[in-house]
Design a protein that fits this description.
Elements (H helix, E strand, L loop, with lengths): L3 H25 L15 H16 L7 H17 L11 H4 L3 H8 L8
Length: 117
């Protein structure tokens, strides 16, 4: 079994690899990555809000007894979050209701190979 430090290092390397793949794909399509004045991605606020919602609406209310239960519970929560939970920022509808059509999504990701991530 690998140590927590080794697992953390492997995870960080994987995240960096995914980030580079996405960044390269965006650059190849001449898409500029939005950054705030300090060089951090401004979209971080959306991720922080997502994880706050996950923690307060699921994790703290339904503590898992093991990793498998947590994994299954998070799958169910994200299904709810994307398909049934109303979101204030998009007019109190679920994200799936405001998602782009398949054709719009294809245009916006044209040239990116998400399967290699």
């Amino acid at each position: 079994m690998q140590s927590a430090t080794a697992m953390s290092s492997l995870w960080q390397a994987r995240v960096q690899s995914v980030h580079m793949c996405i960044a390269d794909g965006l650059k190849s399509q001449t898409i500029q990555i939005s950054m705030d004045g300090k060089g951090r991605e401004i979209d971080n606020m959306f991720i922080e809000h997502l994880w706050r919602s996950v923690k307060y609406e699921y994790v703290y209310r339904s503590p898992a007894s093991d990793v498998r239960q947590l994994y299954t519970g998070l799958q169910q929560y994200f299904q709810y979050y994307n398909h049934r939970r109303p979101h204030q920022g998009i007019g109190r509808i679920a994200p799936v209701e405001s998602a782009p059509t398949q054709e719009e999504a294809h245009v916006s990701t044209n040239g990116l190979n998400w399967q290699s991530i």
